[in-house]
Amino acid sequence: MPLRKKHTPGSEQPGHMPGGEDRWPLVAVAGVLAFVAMLDMNIVNVALANIADSLHVPAATAQWAVLAYQLPVVALLLPAGRWLDGVGLRSAVLVATAGFGLCSALAAAAPWAAWLIAARLIQGVFGAVLFVLMPVLAVRSVRPQSRGRAMSVPATLGPLGAVTGPAVGGPLLDHWGWHAVFLVKIPFCLLAFAVTRRVMPGDGRPRLPDRRSLVDALLVATGVAVLLLALTSAPGGPSRLPLALAAVPPLWWWLRGRGGRPVAAVLRTAGLLRAHGAVLALAAGFAAMHYVVALHLQRDDGISATTTGLTVLAFPLGMGLAGPFGGRLADRCGARPVAVTGAVLTTAGLLLLVPLGDHWSPWQVAWRLALAGVGMGLNGGPTQALVMGAAPPDRTATVGSTAQLARSLGFTLGPALATAVRGLTGADNGIHAGLLLAATAACLAVPLLAVPGRRRAPAPGTATDTAPAARP
Questions:
Q1: I need a surface site. Which of 17, 62, 444, 461 has the fewest CB within 10 A?
Q2: Each residue of 66-100: pLDDT tens digit?
Q3: Superfamily of domain 271-454
């Protein structure tokens, strides 16, 4: 079998669709899908009490309306990436979008809890595919000189969807009941489906995973699900963190097998390990900060939930304003310096929050959050462009899935570590220690992004240069 041609940065755009022109409607579709998928991560939280009352189940059972979606989304990212490298992109977008919207309708129509949880589990599978498709669709829809602007669209709209969820869910719940928090996503799915079908050229039929791929998916899903459950339960008791060790055996088995070796080899040969570390560190820093600040404002300062929500909205506001500017700047000046500048600003904003005390007004907290949000906005698109631009042309989905997994684990790891630090230092010092942890995590991203990862030539006979080329 012939060796794969070695990829060098800038030699070609990964998987750019034929025609040579930029397809901005498809970039908009990537942004809409990012918004919807992240919206679903948080909007259902506000409806859990109503779901429990309406379906006559305990609150712990209703909580699975959220967990049943989140677990497969994160656990299936890597298997979804490997699968998407070998299937037609148009077919994958259409099937995942239609499936996601259909499951939203099924969840809204649920007459009992088992129905709802099953619909959410299946929706999580489609959600995992959407999360991988977002950066892939954006990077393949434009030429290299427009990549920064394209990547800033899903990188900005995704987090905005996450923070918009609770704000949108409350009014929907008050006026139309819990069914509306599932139905609100359907118009977005219909819009994305229609634009994709009209604008995107055909690229063949989808291919179902084979038996070996299913075994790999089971190993990864088991390991990541155990890790995610251990981290999400940590705020209820840091002693549960050691349960994450149970995730090691299935993940190690997968990593040493035929499914994991190509993924690890792609990251090594493309020099992407540093960038993935930066993505994880920034996500962990943001999540830890958000958890600590919200906890302090409500529990320690006695500020109302409404005022707290408006205060922490300063972060996504700064991010939303800076995101498009960061993409344009990356296309003019290069992605790396803009990404590093964003990480520096995020670190500065988080460091300014470390002395947070009871005498601080919401405004004093908000402008520091806005500064950190501006940094994240500048960083998001350029970092995505760095990662996807270095991906081999037939491994863009794999690299996209590993970046999404790093970000998801960072979002989960941040609050868990902040809780553990609070338990070690005591309630009085826990706020400052948690914020210092958040600032330290963001600071780690600066050298990881500033120093390019070393690209390695694949060794002869390895999976990366002997694997069959992905189907167009």
A1: 461
A2: 888 888 888 788 888 877 777 778 888 899 999 99
A3: MFS general substrate transporter like domains (1.20.1250.20)
